[in-house]
């Protein structure tokens, strides 16, 4: 799982590996869809609100991340939830931050804004459809992290044997059509 992908170059490497049958999965975050490097330029420490790693890139990188969501290069959409109060001298407005950005706490909130941002900027603006939205924010996460069997009970033949992202059943398992149907496969198209 390659997380926090913020540009086209990284996305193309993921696509390249996926195209060769590698079990590589990708993720991007809200900040890479709506922020750019220009947001970091705000006067009077305003840009400190957007200090995160990797940092927001340019508009071309933003568009590449949208393409990654639209074409199935990214299977999940997550946040890098790491909030700091902006108005707190021990948060984003730390006095040391005025001398160097390295002193500005790294991270931005994302749990509450992840879904509304993807819905408003993705579904409402026609970049992705509602099914892709649900897959990126819930279904694929559940498949990848075996949430369907998180409490240890076997549900529809899945059991815990698929916690390995679908590498196949162990010698003692009896594969069935239902179990194969729930194995993770990258989304192709929207």
Summarize the model shown.
This protein is an all-alpha fold. The protein has helices at residues 8-19, 31-34, 59-71, 114-123, 130-144, 177-181; strands at residues 27-28, 76-77.
Essential attributes:
190 residues; mainly alpha; TIM Barrel; 6 helices; 31% helix; disordered C terminus
Write down how many β-strands occur, each being a DSSP E stretch of 2 or more residues. Answer: 2
Total DSSP helices = 6
Low-confidence spans: 153-190
Give the biggest beta sheet: 2 strands, parallel
Indicate the structural class. mainly alpha
Return the average pLDDT rounded to an integer. Answer: 81
Cα Rg: 19 Å
Write the H/E string, N to C: HEHHEHHH
CATH classification, class level: Alpha Beta
Strand order within the widest beta sheet: 1-2
* Whole-number tally of structural domains: 1
CATH architecture: Alpha-Beta Barrel
Strand content: under 5%
CATH superfamily: Metal-dependent hydrolases
Percent range of helical residues:
25-40%
Shape: elongated
The name CATH uses for the topology is TIM Barrel
Distance between the termini: 21 Å
Tell me about this structure.
- This protein is mainly α.
- It has a single domain, classed as Alpha-Beta Barrel (TIM Barrel).
- The protein is built from six helices and two strands.
- A two-stranded parallel sheet has the order 1-2.
- The chain is elongated, with a radius of gyration of 19 Å.
Secondary structure elements and pairings:
Elements: H1 8-19, E1 27-28, H2 31-34, H3 59-71, E2 76-77, H4 114-123, H5 130-144, H6 177-181
Parallel strand pairs: 1-2
């Amino acid at each position: 799982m390659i997380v926090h992908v913020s540009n086209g170059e990284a996305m193309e490497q993921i696509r390249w590996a996926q195209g060769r049958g590698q079990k590589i999965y990708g993720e991007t975050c809200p900040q890479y869809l709506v922020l750019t490097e220009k947001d970091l330029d705000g006067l009077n420490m305003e840009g400190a609100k957007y200090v995160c790693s990797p940092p927001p890139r340019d508009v071309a990188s933003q568009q590449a991340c949208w393409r990654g969501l639209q074409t199935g290069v990214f299977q999940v959409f997550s946040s890098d939830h790491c909030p700091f109060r902006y108005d707190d001298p021990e948060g984003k407005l730390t006095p040391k931050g005025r001398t160097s950005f390295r002193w500005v706490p790294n991270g931005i909130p994302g749990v509450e804004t992840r879904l509304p941002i993807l819905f408003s900027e993705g579904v409402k603006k026609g970049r992705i459809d509602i099914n892709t939205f649900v897959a990126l924010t819930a279904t694929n996460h559940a498949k990848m992290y075996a949430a369907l069997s998180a409490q240890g009970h076997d549900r529809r033949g899945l059991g815990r044997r698929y916690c390995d992202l679908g590498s196949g059943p162990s010698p003692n398992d009896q594969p069935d059509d239902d179990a194969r149907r729930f194995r993770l496969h990258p989304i192709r198209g929207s």
